[in-house]
TrEMBL record, chain A:
It catalyses: N(6)-[(R)-lipoyl]-L-lysyl-[protein] + pyruvate + H(+) = N(6)-[(R)-S(8)-acetyldihydrolipoyl]-L-lysyl-[protein] + CO2. NCBIfam families: PRK09212.1 (NF006667), PRK11892.1 (NF008854). Its EC number is 1.2.4.1. It comes from Mesorhizobium kowhaii. It is an enzyme of class 1 (oxidoreductase). PROSITE patterns: BIOTINYL_LIPOYL, LIPOYL. InterPro entries: 2-oxoA_DH_lipoyl-BS, Biotin_lipoyl, PDHB_mito-type, Single_hybrid_motif, THDP-binding, Transketo_C/PFOR_II, Transketolase-like_Pyr-bd, Transketolase_C. Signal peptide: none annotated. The pyruvate dehydrogenase complex catalyzes the overall conversion of pyruvate to acetyl-CoA and CO(2). It contains multiple copies of three enzymatic components: pyruvate dehydrogenase (E1), dihydrolipoamide acetyltransferase (E2) and lipoamide dehydrogenase (E3). The pyruvate dehydrogenase complex catalyzes the overall conversion of pyruvate to acetyl-CoA and CO2. CDD domains: lipoyl_domain (cd06849), TPP_PYR_E1-PDHc-beta_like (cd07036). Residues 2-78 form the Lipoyl-binding domain. Heterodimer of an alpha and a beta chain. This is Pyruvate dehydrogenase E1 component subunit beta. The lineage of its organism: Bacteria, Pseudomonadati, Pseudomonadota, Alphaproteobacteria, Hyphomicrobiales.
From TrEMBL, chain B:
InterPro entries: DH_E1, PDH_E1_Alpha_Subunit, Pyrv_DH_E1_asu_subgrp-y, THDP-binding. The lineage of its organism: Bacteria, Pseudomonadati, Pseudomonadota, Alphaproteobacteria, Hyphomicrobiales. Its EC number is 1.2.4.1. The gene is pdhA. One of its GO terms (biological process) is pyruvate decarboxylation to acetyl-CoA. NCBIfam families: PDH_E1_alph_y. This is Pyruvate dehydrogenase E1 component subunit alpha.
Length: 461, 345
């Protein structure tokens, strides 16, 4: 069988081109790799190489032809032993107009892919029951995080922690205190100041099956590493068709601390929540910090675990249980109420909680939902609450544009529009880089008064 | 050889303290020559076919061919033991074939079909195989260097005697995270071989226009990582360097850099006309340094194979490639439901 040489596509978008020159004549021998012709596209002149070996039996499209469609037959090659004279017979009667044999994929279905609702919807378990009589221990968020890592490292030898000052210094914020002493330098690894590099090393180790906890001294520095977090950690499972993922936790303080100005005061909840393939957890209480960090370490996916420096020293009750693990992707109703729903997460909860106490004095019974996980987002819990209260406020410290609150407001307006008695109000940090001066910094952050005013507005008080 | 055409190769291309210097090319047995010939030919023919399928519109997007550089992955593969890992960037088809990933699976991934190694969701630049210890296939220049260092970290953590082969190009060698990785790998004595495939052009920019230090074997000097320059067009030289490097790593000495002096015959990607270099330069490499022709000439000269026997190998290789192409053109596209799978576990 003679081989047809087709007009090649030479770029992702090329549909036709000019056959500017033949470098071989009819009757010439060609071997694979020989340049046989030159083709001019809208971008460049490219060489066409022979793929097969044989004799150029017939040039179908002469040099100088313009507008040759991709996949049109441009020449015919006779292979070993074939009659060169006969090889080209009956081919290319209408050369340049030859039909473009656009490859018809075998299963080219026209149907539109399953709509958003079909997105993998896994059932997320409820929080575990805490047996009656369980001792509650007042614990700081800092201790809860440390305990979670220590418990998981005892449980699984593949879990290790790496980051700047995590070992000998005992943690820049003392979250890893005592871990080096218990687990040794093989599993508690001090890194150089090299976020991009060690984030990549962590992801590589995770691809090889280890379960790294990568601590960023703050998430502000993780911007150096964001390519590895998103392009390597979050996307590999999909790009490998499910063969290989990255079971890794990236954790550290996130958001504004106090008086550290613009480069050290930013909330990344909305940023990471944008990325399919990531889970994003942002706890408020010590119990949630502990139960969710344990869950994050066991999770086979990359998890962004956003902590807050101001919360580290705050104490909450933590149940004294051997293995307290909470479900990622489940919001927690912090306080039930009937008049308005206030949704928040992380340090944003401090505004919600204080506002609720004042609102109670005004006779307004607010329900507070602590998201705990930003991705996957527990919209069901929010919507169930909105259907009850018919009013929604979202509070967060991050920037206002494309915020977590914006997304929630959009989803609620689509899924519970008829249940809303007032517009959703989103309260966020101001749309400015964080200033240094104490008074300006205070103005840049949300405050309790804003939450109260918003609630009064939506309850028409 | 390739290096001679450029400048004097490897005198003692090391830091002077490690005692590492370029070894002599390996003495190949007949079997080794034939194996190298067959493996390199498979890559060559596969890539030519991929280029053809691209031209026909079966392969979309970017497609970076490995033609010319076959000796690098082939020689290195010959130095590996079970469990050693390989990771590279986006010029990755040759690496996958060297690691014995199925030609059908690779080609069907190029055409975006369900039988592709990533079930059609990765494409030319993103393929993986845990079973064959191939860790990608990465589209971000330089990112694989930190990831490959992480593979080596896992080896050391498990104390398993395996080595991570981390490939990158002369272009990626200028990325910052490469040096962050060098530092950690040397500090922690990680078993990683950094294989810099210097094919002289980072897309359209020659090394002399992009690199202050064009001797890439010296790039680890600040991190006490020794390096050697290797004639990457001679599979025996690559094999010898691979033996030296894997032994070095397995002995607990930490990382090593191998600068493979090689050449790509085709453009950076399918849509690159490669106007930044002369035809004569390409032709000279092809006619004087071709890695496959070198092996072929030795096989004939030593009377280890006749022209006919080599033709039989050619035919067998062509059949494998034709079968892969046939499969890749006719396999079904992924089911639409695949859009929503493998996002999170």
């Amino acid at each position: 069988m003679p081989i047809e040489i087709l007009m090649p596509a030479l770029s992702p978008t090329m549909e036709e081109g000019n056959l500017s020159k033949w470098l071989k004549n009819e009757g010439d021998k060609v071997v694979a790799g020989d340049v046989i012709a030159e083709i001019e596209t809208d971008k460049a002149t490219m060489e066409v190489e022979a793929v097969d070996e044989g004799t150029l039996a017939k040039i179908v499209v002469p040099a100088g032809t313009e507008g040759v469609k991709v996949n049109a037959v441009i020449a015919v090659l006779a292979v070993d032993g074939e009659d060169v004279d006969k090889a080209g017979e009956g081919i290319g009667e209408e050369p340049a107009k030859a039909e473009t044999a656009a490859p018809a994929p075998a299963a080219a279905k026209s149907e539109v892919a399953a709509p958003v609702a079909a997105a993998s919807k896994t059932e997320i378990a409820a929080d575990p029951d805490i047996p009656a009589g369980t001792e509650m221990v007042s614990t700081t968020v800092r201790e809860a995080l440390r305990d979670a890592m220590a418990e998981e490292m005892r449980r699984d030898g593949d879990v290790f922690v790496m980051g700047e000052e995590v070992a000998e210094y005992q943690g820049a914020y003392k979250i890893t205190q005592g871990l080096l002493q218990e687990f040794g330098p093989r599993r508690v690894v001090d890194t150089p100041i090299t976020e991009h590099g060690f984030a990549g090393v962590g992801v590589g180790a995770a691809m090889a099956g280890l379960k790294p906890i990568v601590e960023f001294m703050t998430f502000n520095f993780a911007m150096q590493a964001i390519d590895q977090i998103i392009n390597s950690a979050a996307k590999t499972l999909y790009m490998s068709g499910g063969q290989m993922g990255a079971p890794i936790v990236f954790r550290g303080p996130n958001g504004a601390a106090a008086r550290v100005a613009a480069q050290h005061s930013q909330c990344y909840a909305a940023w990471y929540s944008h990325i399919p393939g990531l889970k994003v957890v942002m706890p408020y209480t010590a119990a949630d910090a502990k139960g969710l960090l344990k869950a994050a370490i066991r999770d086979p996916n990359p998890v962004i675990f956003l902590e807050n420096e101001i919360l580290y020293g705050q104490s909450f009750d933590v149940p004294k249980l051997d293995d307290f693990v909470l479900p990622i992707g489940k919001a927690r109703i912090h306080k039930t109420g009937k008049d308005v729903t206030i949704v928040s997460f992380g340090i944003g909860m401090t505004y919600a909680v204080k506002a609720e106490a004042e609102l109670r004095g005004m006779g307004i019974d607010a329900e507070i939902i602590d998201l705990r996980t930003i991705r996957p987002l527990d919209l069901d819990t929010i919507i169930a609450s909105v259907k009850k209260t018919n009013r929604l406020i979202v509070v967060e410290e991050g920037y206002p544009q494309s915020s977590v609150g914006d997304h929630i407001a959009n989803q609620v307006s689509q899924r519970a529009f008829d249940f809303l008695d007032a517009p959703v109000i989103t309260i966020a940090g101001k749309d400015v880089p964080m200033p240094y001066a104490a008074n300006l910094e205070k103005l840049a952050l949300p405050n309790v008064g804003e939450v109260i005013e918003a609630v009064k507005a939506v309850t028409y008080r | 050889m390739a290096t001679a055409a450029r400048k004097a190769p490897a005198k003692s291309k090391s830091d002077g303290k490690s005692g590492v210097s370029a070894p002599k090319p390996a003495e190949f047995t007949k079997d080794e020559e034939l194996t190298a010939y067959r493996h390199m030919l498979l890559i060559r023919r596969f890539e030519e076919k991929a280029g053809q399928l691209y031209g026909m519109g079966f392969i979309g997007g970017f497609c970076h061919l490995y033609i010319g550089q076959e000796a690098v992955v082939t020689g290195m593969k010959m130095a590996l033991i079970q469990g050693d890992q390989m990771i590279t960037a986006y010029r990755d088809h040759g690496h996958m074939l060297a690691m014995e990933l199925s030609p059908r699976g690779v080609m069907a991934e190029l055409t975006g079909r369900r039988g592709g190694l990533s079930r059609g969701k990765g494409g030319s630049m993103h393929m993986f195989s845990k079973e064959k210890h191939f860790y990608g296939g990465h589209g971000i220049v330089g990112a694989q260097v930190s990831l490959g260092t992480g593979l080596a970290f896992a080896n050391r953590y498990r104390d398993n005697n395996n080595v991570s082969l981390t490939y990158f190009g002369d272009g990626a060698a200028n990325q910052g995270q490469v040096y962050e990785s060098f530092n950690m790998a040397s500090l922690w004595k990680l078993p990683v071989i950094y294989i810099i495939e210097n094919n002289r052009y980072a897309m359209g920019t020659s090394v002399s226009r992009s690199s202050a230090e064009t001797d890439f074997s010296h790039r680890g000097a600040s991190f006490k990582i020794p390096g050697i320059q290797v004639d990457g067009m001679d599979v025996r030289a690559v094999k010898a360097a691979g033996d030296l490097a894997t032994e070095w790593c397995r002995a607990g000495n930490g990382p090593l850099i191998l600068e493979m002096q090689t050449y790509r015959y085709r453009g950076h990607s399918m849509s690159d006309p490669a106007k930044y270099r002369s035809k004569e330069e390409v032709q000279k490499m092809r006619s004087e340094h071709d890695p496959i022709e070198q092996v072929k000439a030795r096989l004939i000269e030593k009377k280890w194979a006749t022209e006919d026997e080599l033709k039989t190998i050619d035919k067998e290789v062509r059949d494998v490639v034709a079968d892969a192409a046939e499969f890749a053109q006719n396999d079904a596209e992924p089911d639409p439901s695949e859009l929503w799978t493998d996002i999170v576990l």
